[in-house]
Amino acid sequence: MLSRAPRAIRLAARARTAAVASIPVPDASSDARRGRFVAAAAVSTAAAAAFAAANVAAAEEAPAGTDVTTPEFAKRPNVLFVLGGPGAGKGTQCERLVKECGFVHLSAGDLLRAERKSGSAHGDLIAKYILDGRIVPVEITVSLLAKAMAESGRTRFLIDGFPRNENNFEGWKAVMGDSVDVEGVLFYDVDDETRLDRLLERGKTSGRTDDNADTIQKRFRVFKEETMPVVSHYDKLGRVFRIDGAPEVDQVFKATLRAVAPVVKKEAVAAAQAMLDAADSLDWEAYAALCEPDMTAVEDETHGATVCGLEFHKFYFDEGKRAAEAAKAAGKPLPARRSAMLSPTVSLQTPNVAVVSYTRAVQSLAGTANFAETRVFMAHDGVWRCAHLHRSRAGEMPAASVAPAGSSDALHTPAPISKDALDKIYEAALRPAAE
Ligand SMILES: Nc1ncnc2c1ncn2[C@@H]1O[C@H](COP(=O)(O)OP(=O)(O)OP(=O)(O)O)[C@@H](O)[C@H]1O
Ligand SMILES: O=c1ccn([C@@H]2O[C@H](COP(=O)(O)O)[C@@H](O)[C@H]2O)c(=O)[nH]1
């Protein structure tokens, strides 16, 4: 479940990185090949095999049954690409997002500079490309990103300064496939003149070989000609969060927080849905991983009292499991339950506190019961946990008079919620009226 995700990502990325590392990297003179997706095709074949191997390995390590109701989205890391011309303030804003929202910041440029310094076999090549303001072969960059993502053990990333061109974009897709959710692009818009001033100023102390007037002009040209088409691609998909990066840093950060709010809200809804799935499948381990240890709760079962801690809730999981085992032993139909989240709204109190309210419709053969639920979530290092739950019964409908024959067994394993259904949930959850 959620707590296991980083391990699965680690396994997948380890295999991917190994596959990418084995791809020969052309030397700096073979520029004619760049931009024609040759590298991407090479990455693709190796990565496909690596992916299959990593996914099998991850599945083999999974405790039996824990994956039954984990929606796909809950297992995948979220990625926001951060783009903008050189000197637009990407790194500055990412640093603030790390501090205030628990994102992991991976600057492709920083990773390349570190790789160069590490004495890697690609060191000279990287140094030459950076000095020329050109884009380093995608095999190197993607493998560094995949490795860093895996090593972080986390699931919420800002990938800064990447993808820099179409070839980068194809290389990323070939290696990452559907294993991550790219939420979109944070795009910092700042005119050339301002950025040039900033970079020349930064160049006085940065020690960067490319913070000089000559290389800066080359970088500006590469940005316009190669990176802007990637931004346009995401623009057409409605996935560019455009931010005016010209005002002072604090003001830009306010706009940045507004831009990331939909992504943050989506995560909170996903955490709530994962809790419902865990409850339906009586998966205590998964449920507990989504709770603060001192979670408070008011629900019909507490008769108006506020309970604190997890023991109260664990009782129902333990008893539910016992009832299921007893039913199985007696050859009776297994009890089954499935929850759907209806009309969710999310209110972000801070970037790390979200109030998720919805109607929970619980289906079982005994009938359908609706509950009004509110869950308050807190994020630590980008991981959401429930700090408070309020549930009230909101309506009930008795069982349909005729249940389809044999349906009880089929229902025992609740079907994972579909991507389409989730998209609808998110659409509803992210309506501005929720604020
Ligand atoms: N809003 C701002 N107003 C004024 N200066 C800024 C602002 N944002 C960043 N800076 C300064 O501009 C310089 C470039 O910022 P930063 O390194 O964040 O840009 P970047 O987009 O990451 O650049 P690059 O792509 O070249 O790495 C830094 O010296 C930074 O302190
Ligand atoms: O994906 C990438 C990112 C960076 N590069 C090279 O590094 C420099 C500096 O990048 P910054 O984002 O400004 O730190 C860039 O001009 C490229 O030469 C890259 O090739 N691919």
Domain count, please report it. Answer: 2
Instruction: State the strand order across the main sheet.
Output: 7-6-11-10-9-8
Outline the biggest β-sheet.
6 strands, mixed
Small molecules (ligands, ions, cofactors) in the structure: adenosine-5'-triphosphate, the ligand O=c1ccn([C@@H]2O[C@H](COP(=O)(O)O)[C@@H](O)[C@H]2O)c(=O)[nH]1
Instruction: Kindly estimate the percentage of residues that lie in beta strands according to DSSP.
Output: 15-25%
Write down the Rg: 25 Å
Output the structural class: alpha/beta
What are the segments in which pLDDT stays under 50 over at least 5 consecutive residues? 1-74, 401-415
Name given to the CATH architecture of the largest domain: Roll
How far is it from the N-terminal to the C-terminal residue, by CA?
Answer: 30 Å
CATH class of the largest domain: Alpha Beta
Which fold does the CATH topology of the largest domain refer to?
A: Nuclear Transport Factor 2, Chain: A
Shape designation = elongated
